């Protein structure tokens, strides 16, 4: 081992670690003199600290700072001379930086993606395991004093190392020892882990030897490690559209993806989502972030039904009538037609576009009747017919299904009397319309009569639409439906 | 090649040969050379052609005189038109019989017909050989799929381009069919191209009965003035490995993609292993490499293999064991996984045992010479390969040339690449039609179709340094990064490196290695320069369209520092 006399002097004076790294391009950049004075060296050896700093190397004559592209090694890895440790991006290219010493990578001071000036310490190398803690303390001090943000990996490491990772494994149903699972031919207790599982374990500092493998032949799978690390599966699932073929007699059946899920029942089939179904699923999950509430309202529809009978021969549909009524009510209550985009403000939409939910080909799509308040009933009905045709032939343009400002969902034709809709992301409210049914109604004078009554239920985003807003809107809607002449104007 | 090269001399010499196909008299070049050298000064790159080929003429003629004194070649009739499959000389059924209809045999057959030879090709299996049916072609189909899968799965990359794609999936059967359909299509193209030119395709296993005599099928015997052996190779399976074709497989089985294991061990990290790791990881498998040497990808330039490890191995779900042999591999059976016993490559001590779902044996390829009847002509294979000289002439057990017998492609082991076989075949046809031709193997490029691709031509840096030390010249390296290339950045694929190994004293290109987007297509500028003997100081003035990836190579040539800007003819090509 040869040390640069310069840093050696510094070391002996301050007992600080010394430079030990060099790039593959310019070996020994700081070794200006060929030999260090012998007594000095001896004195150095007697100093207890064997922690060396890894410096940002100068990879080209014009380089002033470098970005850490990736750490090839992670903290705790044993390094041997000549191995690549870190990849540094200079102004010209990415270069592997090798260690010229054996040791243990004790701490990473500058994490991946960050930049450090040439000569700045980017990591610490300890000679023995005992010095790791010391090196870490130094690293903490270093990253504190340097403007670099405190390395989060390090503190995480400290805590996760202490807590036994196994406690997080929620798989009590699996028999304990991995070798108990059929087919595990190695009674030696050796843990078999897949390449990705090992990589994840290293990344999340999970001790793979403490894990109980749930994979085929008791092997530790990436899912096991993720469960132990308490994270959601990040692996982009590569769904094969059909089950594993029988070609391989011993092809093991894959265990259920995430550990907490129960194994699928025998004989069950897994059908991946179509694109449309995947979009629905994604939207539904997103909707969970919006605080919604619901307000129901009974609406008498005798007058509407009479009108419907009249206009039906002219091609007017009930959907058009309801959309028109909702649009007219929205015109008077713009807040219900508004959207909350950022959680901080109201976005009032300039037009009233009624999206109408349509079940189609095993999916769900919402063609939009744009400017429903402005178009007359006949145009609206015609437009609706076109949209449904397009939806059926998958010809809808994006603006024809994603420009809605308010959604209408009607299950009345199935005899559903009331239901509850989920608010689609990006809208303020959705109206769920039940069936219109003859109901005994008592009027103010106590006279009973039989009237057609329909229950509507509106789900709204409470960040912008409050109970009174919705109630007032529903009252207006009910008035319009009960006095539908205005719809034909 | 010789005849076409002669065309470029004609503008400079008034006494140019009237017909390009006619063979130049041996002294023609001698006379023409001094004049043309001067008058062709303005032709830039072209003038190198002259210097190069005038030296070529020493190739096979010279050695032929030394080794086969007894054999005198009859003059050839070369007047036949290119599309006509000539008529054989009276005493033989054919002018040329090729055993093996792979890419090498096909290339030779096409060129033979062009040269007016009556040609037959014998195939005991399917036309197309390894490349078309069990190699390059179907694997490119799988790699096309894996490349797209990778793009669609790379959220980060897509986001950077502003694209949104929902979970990408695949249908195994569909992928496998694509590979199979492609192989069928190329096979038909190959068959039709030979049929339409009038090459006789003789079905059956070909066996050499004696000089100029071949048996095919049961007992059909044909005679031919010249015979080319192009029987190719099969996957090499080391001792102790049981291949069951289901869980322990070779590339032959893997290309059918009958099963995509969750975890596959790939034994060998050369081209084949690397390409399959690209396919399997893109389709969701995890991969463990087993490599006997101390480093992964030992065949590549060390700098390239290091970068390849960073780009193609480390970020993927791949781990590896280096410096170990797979001493025993047992297929999965009776509810047990595939087990692989690893021993230290040096000490032979047991090291580890792997348990995986499948194992792919990609430890190279072994020449296929079974039933060829080599014993009938006293030829003994060396490590299975048929020994040949630099002109692909077969050498017998006593070190003498076997007259009229040539061997090309994987069976001779010079360079186990489809296009090398084809080039060797063309070279042989040139020779049997009376033109001297030595193939410069250092000008043959190679490519590995991973994502991104790797390509190379000529020497690696260690090889170049060794040669430099022996011959006493200086070696320099120039490098350019794809990061600085506009087109690569537009594609958001800036990862990559091009490396030039050259002689600063005379500007000779010794080797070029590329890892990066479309590297396999980019290498040809360098390989052509090496083949034509073009020097850096000349090629660096060639213009490249902007913005294209080819500018990576342009930059590479421009960044090289050549001492003398005066161009000199390239040294004599050396066959390896």
Automatic annotation (TrEMBL), chain A:
One of its GO terms (biological process) is pyruvate decarboxylation to acetyl-CoA. InterPro entries: 2-oxoA_DH_lipoyl-BS, 2-oxoacid_DH_actylTfrase, Biotin_lipoyl, CAT-like_dom_sf, E2/Pdx1, E3-bd_dom_sf, PSBD, Single_hybrid_motif. Residues 138-148, 158-171 have a biased composition (Low complexity). It is an enzyme of class 2 (transferase). Residues 51-129 form the Lipoyl-binding domain. Residues 192-229 form the Peripheral subunit-binding (PSBD) domain. Residues 136-191 are annotated as: Disordered. PROSITE patterns: BIOTINYL_LIPOYL, LIPOYL, PSBD. Transmembrane segments: none annotated. Its EC number is 2.3.1.-. Its cofactor is (R)-lipoate. Pfam families: 2-oxoacid_dh (PF00198), Biotin_lipoyl (PF00364), E3_binding (PF02817). One of its GO terms (cellular component) is chloroplast envelope. CDD domains: lipoyl_domain. One of its GO terms (molecular function) is dihydrolipoyllysine-residue acetyltransferase activity. Keywords: Acyltransferase, Lipoyl, Transferase, Transit peptide. Belongs to the 2-oxoacid dehydrogenase family. This is Dihydrolipoamide acetyltransferase component of pyruvate dehydrogenase complex. The lineage of its organism: Eukaryota, Viridiplantae, Streptophyta, Embryophyta, Tracheophyta.
UniProtKB/TrEMBL annotation, chain B:
It is found in: Plastid, Chloroplast stroma. NAD(+) binds at residues 268-275, 291, 364. Residues 94-425 form the FAD/NAD(P)-binding domain. Its main location: plastid. InterPro entries: Class-I_Pyr_Nuc-Dis_Oxidored (IPR050151), FAD/NAD-bd_sf (IPR036188), FAD/NAD-binding_dom (IPR023753), FAD/NAD-linked_Rdtase_dimer_sf (IPR016156), Pyr_nuc-diS_OxRdtase (IPR001100), Pyr_nucl-diS_OxRdtase_dimer (IPR004099), Pyr_OxRdtase_I_AS (IPR012999). Residues 1-20 are annotated as: Disordered. Its cofactor is FAD. Its EC number is 1.8.1.4. GO terms for biological process: 2-oxoglutarate metabolic process; response to arsenic-containing substance. FAD binds at residues 140, 206, 231-233, 410, 416-419. It catalyses: N(6)-[(R)-dihydrolipoyl]-L-lysyl-[protein] + NAD(+) = N(6)-[(R)-lipoyl]-L-lysyl-[protein] + NADH + H(+). Pfam families: Pyr_redox_2, Pyr_redox_dim. Keywords: Chloroplast, Disulfide bond, FAD, Flavoprotein, NAD, Nucleotide-binding, Oxidoreductase, Plastid, Redox-active center, Transit peptide. GO terms for cellular component: chloroplast stroma; mitochondrion; oxoglutarate dehydrogenase complex. The active site is at residue 546. Disulfide bonds join 131-136. Residues 444-555 form the Pyridine nucleotide-disulphide oxidoreductase dimerisation domain. It comes from the Eukaryota. The keyword Plastid applies. Binds 1 FAD per subunit. Homodimer. Part of the plastidial pyruvate dehydrogenase complex (PDC) containing multiple copies of three enzymatic components: pyruvate dehydrogenase (E1), dihydrolipoamide acetyltransferase (E2) and lipoamide dehydrogenase (E3). Belongs to the class-I pyridine nucleotide-disulfide oxidoreductase family. Lipoamide dehydrogenase is a component of the plastidial pyruvate dehydrogenase complex (PDC). This is dihydrolipoyl dehydrogenase.
